[in-house]
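Shapes recur. Our protein:

. . .
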Amino acid sequence: MADSKQDYYEVLGVPKDADDQTLKSAYRKLAMKFHPDRNPGDHAAEEKFKGAAEAYGVLSDPQKRAAYDRYGHQGVQGAAAQGFDAGAFTDFSDILGDLFGFGEMFGGGQRRNRVQRGEDVRFDLEITLEDVMQGKSADLMVPRLDPCSRCNTTGAEPGGMSSCPACHGRGEMIYQQGFLSIRRTCTQCGGRGQIVKRVCTQCKGEGYKRTDRKLKVNIPAGVDNNTRLRLSQEGQPGANGGPPGDLYVVLKVKDHPVFERHEDQLHCTVPVNMAQAALGTDVDLLTFDGLQTVKIPEGVQNGHQVRLKGLGVPRLNSHGRGDLFVHVEVRTPEKLTREQRKLLEQLRDLLPVENEPKEKGLFEKVKDYFM
C-alpha cells in the first residue's frame, strides 16, 4: 500500500541529503510561522505545525531517518506516533528553548540527561478467520533494541569513560556576559559530562544491541481487521533509565474462501440446480461449528437466504454470537443432454406461461405519480 502521508522532506522543504543544521533551520522557520501561539484559532496552521514537528522528530533522529529512507512511513509508524507529542510545544517559549538554546541559557543544560520513555513499536500480524472464530495464542519474533550488558548503554568499555575536557564533567558550558551568566549544554559530551575513550567491543559504541525477542500474544475471539493488542513495556528501551515503550500488535484477517464477514455476521453462497430449487432440498454445509444441514424450501427463488442463528462471529469482549446467512444461488445449466432437453421441454409445456412484465411496486407507482 502506498504511503498516503506527505513526504517528510517535502513537509520541511529540504532535499533528502540535508544535514542536521539544514533540517533544524527549516523546522525552525516552519515552527515560528505556524505555531498556535502566533495563529490562534487557525486549525490549518496548527496542522502544518504538527506535521512539521512530526517530520523533524523523525528526520533529526539518525535511526528513525534511516528507517524512513528505506521503508517510508511504514518504517516509522510506531516511532512517529510516539516520537511526536502534540503537547510537546504548548508554549511558544518551548520552541525558543529547543531551537535557539534559550532553555539552556537559563539553566536547562542538563535536559539531554532527563529520563525518557522508550518508543512504541508496531507489529503487523496476519491471522485467519478460524483464528477469529476460536481465538488463539501466537508466538511473535519481534526485533528490538536491548541495553548492552557490557557497557550498560554508555557505549564505552568498562572504565572507558573519562571526564569531558571541555566542560570538566559538568555537562554544560557557562559563559559570563557582564552580570548575565549563560549556561549551554556542552556540545562535546552532549550534556553527559563524560566522553568515550574506549568504545565498547560488544555493541561497537551504540549502547544497545539488536535482538529478536520471542513474545506470546493472546488473540481473543471476535477480533477484526486493524484490532490493536497492546503488550505493555515491550517496545524500545527508554533513555537514561526511562521505562520502555509498548508494543502494539495490529491484526489483519485473511480473506476466507467460503465465508465473508460483516461485523458479527457470516455470509456464504450455496448453489442449487433448478430441480432442487423447485422441489426443495437439504444441503450439507461445513461451518466453523461442524457439519450443518441447511434446509432449502420448495420453490426457492434466486437470492433467498437461510438464517442459522448463533453460528456467526463471537462478539468481542461480550457474550453471544451473530448469525450465519446462507444465500441460495439458483443455477441454470448452460449445456443439456438430449434427455435433459426433452424432459425440460415437456415441463415447459406443462407449466403456465408467465411472460408478462411484472407490475410496478408501490414505490414505483408513487414515483410515477409525482413525475
Remarks:
- Residues 155 and 205 are 4 Å apart (CA to CA).
